[in-house]
Structure formats: C-alpha cells, structure tokens
Automatic annotation (TrEMBL):
It holds the Pfam family TrkH. One of its GO terms (molecular function) is metal ion binding. It is a multi-pass membrane protein. Keywords: Cell inner membrane, Cell membrane, Ion transport, Membrane, Metal-binding, Potassium, Potassium transport, Transmembrane, Transmembrane helix, Transport. It is found in: Cell inner membrane. This is TrkH family potassium uptake protein. The chain crosses the membrane at residues 12-34, 40-60, 72-93, 138-165, 186-209, 239-262, 278-297, 345-365, 410-435, 475-500. Belongs to the TrkH potassium transport family. The keyword Transmembrane helix applies.
Length: 505
C-alpha cells in the first residue's frame, strides 16, 4: 500500500518502546529497594526495550508528520501488541514466568486491564514483578495512545486520529477543543485519583506497597492483586473494601464527568443519562444481591489460594452480605475483576446474574471494558421507537440521548457493534469448546476475555485462574482480550481487504 506512512508507524512504535522501558526501570528500582532478586532481569528488560525504541526512532527520523486513519488504526493495534511483547521481557528475564506463552498472556491481560492471571502463587512473586504487573494495568487503563498523544506536539503531530482509534465508542465529549489538552486533563484526573486511593488504602490498613498496587489496578479497572485471595485477603478490614468499591465505581464513570465534578459543574452529571443508568443499576442490583446473599448464601466462605476456607465472620451478617454484594457487582460491571468472595457459589440465580453483568460494561470514556451502558441505552430506546415506527411508518422519530437526537449512523454503528460482539462471544465459546473445555468454562471464559472482566466460571472461577487453559487457549483468550479492549472494530478492520486497498480508505 504505497500511501502508507511506514516511517511514522516506526516512530510511534519507538516512542512506545521507550515509554514502556522507562516504566520497567521504575519497577527495577522497586525490585532493588525490596531486594527481591529480580532487579537484574527487570533492569536488562528495560534497557533492551529502550534501545529497541531508540533504534526504531533513529532509523526513521525523516518522516512526514501526518497520521491518517490507516496509520492510526495500525499504530493503535500494533502498539498494544508490541507493548505486550516487550512487556513480557521482565517476566522472562527474571524467570518469574519462564514460559513465553504464559508471560505474554499475563502481560496482555495487564495492558488490556482484564486481570486474568496464570500465576498460582502470586505472593511468592518478587515485589518488582508484582509492581510491573500493576504498572501494565495502569498504563493500559487510560490507554497507551491517550498517554502518548499528550506529548505528540513535541513531534509536531496531531493526535485526533489516534484518539479516535483508541476510543471508538459513541461518546464524543471532549474537555478542550485540542485533543492533546484533553489527554493531559484526563491523565491528571487519572493520576490524581490513583494517588488519592493509594493514600486512603494506606490509612485504612494496607502497606504502602499493597496500597499503590491496588490503586493502580482499581483506577485501571484491571484487577491484579498482590495477594492470592485478591481483596478477600482484607475481609476483616471492611474499610479497605469500601474504599476500593467507591474507586471502582469512579473508574467506571466517564472521566469527562469526573472533570466536570472537579470543576463543580454537577448539573452535567445529574443530567447524564448514562451515569444515572450506570449508578442506579449498581445500586439496585447490589441491594437485590445483598438481600439474596443475606437470606440464602454463605458469605463466610472466601477465596484464598485455590481453595475455600471458613473465614471468621458471622454468617448471614447483613453488613457483610451488603458489602460483598456491592463490591462484586461493582467489580463485574466495571470489569475490574477484584474478588472479595466466590460469587459463583451464591445460588444458581446469582451465578446467572453475574454472567449477565459481564455484558454490561460501565461508562463510555472510562477505563472499563464491556459493551458500555450508553450502547445499551441507545439500543433499548431504538427498540421502543421501532414499535412507534411500525404504527406510524411515515413519521420521523429520532432516538434521543441526553435530550439530543442521535444520528442514524451512530445507531447503526452501535447495532453493528452489539451484533459483532455477540458473534465473537459465541465464536470464542465454540473455540474454547473445541479445545475440550466444558460448557460453563467455555462460555464464561469467552465472556470474561472479550469483556476484559477477569474471573469467570467453571475452571476459570474466582478461586481458580487461567493457568489450566492449554497453550492455544491462552493465545485465543489473549486475542479476545485485545479485541475487547480496542472495542472490536479497531482490530478487525485490519483483517479486511478494504482497509489495505490503496487510496480506498
């Protein structure tokens, strides 16, 4: 394709590698402070990654400073793959995860903020490696590209094409007319909330190390924990779980609304249909789940290592039932994936409910995965309007969202997204089934991977992990994670002949 600007793609890949390598050096410093034995491996991984980035940029320094849609989609998808490949090096060089397949799976699960892990004993991992796991979440949470376009003016490049490819959802709100300024404001909000949560978790009883790691995992809606039992490790410290629950909800909220909140423009929050639907769903579903758990389920059983043990907590205690319910509902809807209890044993009805929640997603413009509430709202509204159109076929009745008419192009895009999402979910489950996984595991694994949720059902339940998958299953799950994180079209468009026809895009 003669019109493709190859040099700018290599320039951006080089920048991403340097960016990734610098964060590895920070993890190496953490490793050195804790004397965990992994410092050398993480350090060399960082140096090699930075050198590769410098070479990539130096050899293509005479490039046209213009990105069109084709380059934008390639840079985003290739960037995520390259970051995941280079991000595997700290695991491999430190021999914390000696298998390349496992190391890549852990890494892409981090960058896509899925939080699915292959580690059987997380607490035995070096501190520097645990910090690197959380860092991959934090980088991926706001999006590698969104972080990148904040510095593109230094290269003299506009970033709108990259932002469109990174966030292809229906939300088009911007904080500032210039996309780079938007990225900077989003980044500052993200950083500020991360610091705030880390401080609160430390005050609530976590160590500084655990507080920082869990804050990075929460704001990215990732779910990697430093403990085998995830957040269930702190079941005797309710304040910690309440703090994480609040910040999971904030992370699942459109960051544009968070910006308005900081500016004191609360009326925009109250009027936002998606936020009201999102918040009321969490509130209502959590209360229903809490009542069922209180009367029917045993909340004294929590996950630790890979087994269930009795926890010293009053069975049927209303506060515990409500806390675990709010925590798990928020965790699944926001696709964070933290675990405070094994929700798959909370009656068959609740197991089914949590499976359905995996298809919700939180808000557009947040760090969560999934379908997103705004798509559900517009699809449901369009469905009801179809009844009116059947009675009045000549009438022009637009779908309205936030009191504004939604263009038919957006409605069609959302319907196409949802149909494609369901097709990929079914295909994902079928492929897992071909590998010999049982029905519950196949369906749960597909929904979890595509929705970037983390814990699933069956062999992939909250008390297990993804290590039981065959090697090919891990690669398939990784592909589904990438599709879900980049909202399908960004990746799949690269597989269409139309995309690669010169001058036709």
């Amino acid at each position: 394709m003669k019109n493709l600007n190859i040099k700018i793609i290599f320039q951006m890949m080089g920048f991403l590698l340097i960016f990734n390598g610098l964060f590895m050096l920070i993890s190496a410093l953490i490793s050195y402070i804790y004397k965990d034995g992994a410092t050398q491996g993480i350090f060399f991984a960082g140096i090699i990654t930075i050198l590769a980035g410098v070479i990539s940029r130096f050899t293509t320094k005479n490039f046209k400073k213009k990105i069109n849609k084709q380059e934008g989609y390639i840079i985003v998808t290739l960037g995520w793959v390259l970051m995941s490949l280079s991000g595997s090096l700290p695991y491999l060089f430190s021999e914390s995860i000696p298998s390349f397949t496992d190391a890549f799976f852990e890494t892409i699960s981090g960058y896509t903020t899925t939080g699915a892990s292959i580690l059987d004993d997380i607490e035995s991992m070096p501190a520097g490696i645990l910090f690197w796991r959380s860092t991959t979440h934090w980088i991926g949470g706001m999006g590698i590209i969104v972080l990148t376009i904040a510095v593109l003016p230094l290269l003299g490049i506009g970033g709108m094409q990259l932002f469109a490819a990174e966030a292809p959802g229906p939300s088009a709100d911007k904080l500032h007319p210039r996309i780079t300024d938007t990225a900077k404001r989003l980044y500052l909000i993200y950083l500020g909330l991360t610091i705030a949560e880390a401080i609160l978790l430390k005050l609530a009883g976590m160590s500084v190390f655990d507080a920082v790691n869990h804050a990075m995992s929460t704001l990215s809606t990732g779910g990697f924990s430093t403990k085998n039992a995830s957040v269930a490790y702190w079941n005797d410290q309710p304040a910690i779980q309440y703090i994480i629950t609040i910040f999971m909800i904030l992370a699942g909220t459109n960051f544009v609304l968070s910006y308005f909140a900081f500016k004191g423009q609360f009326s925009k929050i109250y009027k936002d249909e998606e936020f009201k639907t999102y918040f009321l769903n969490i509130l209502g579903i959590s209360i229903i789940v809490g009542l069922i758990v209180y009367f029917r389920a045993d909340v004294s059983q929590v996950a630790t290592d890979t087994q269930l043990i009795a926890h010293p907590m009053v069975n049927g205690q209303f506060e515990s039932a409500l806390r675990h319910s709010f925590f798990q509902v928020a965790s699944v809807i926001t696709t964070t994936g933290f675990v405070s209890a094994d929700f798959t044993i909370w009656t068959p009805f609740l197991t089914t409910l949590f499976f359905i929640l995996m298809f919700f997603g939180a808000s557009a413009g947040s760090t969560s995965g999934g379908v997103k509430f705004v798509r559900h709202i517009i699809m449901i509204k369009n469905g009801f309007i179809e009844f009116k159109r059947s009675m009045h076929p000549s009438a022009i009745i637009p779908v309205r969202y936030n009191e504004k008419a939604v263009s038919q192009d957006i409605v069609f895009n959302i319907m196409a997204f949802f149909i494609l999402y369901l097709i990929l979910f079914v295909l994902g489950a079928l492929v897992f089934g071909i590998m010999g996984l049982d029905f519950v595991t196949s369906v749960g694994g597909s929904a979890s991977s595509l929705g970037n949720v983390g814990p699933a059902f069956g062999q992939l339940s909250p008390v297990n992990n993804f290590n039981s998958l065959p090697a090919i299953g891990k690669w398939w799950a990784a592909f589904l994670m990438l599709l879900g994180r980049l909202e399908l079209f960004t990746v799949l468009i690269l597989f269409t002949p139309y995309f690669w026809r010169s001058g036709k895009f």
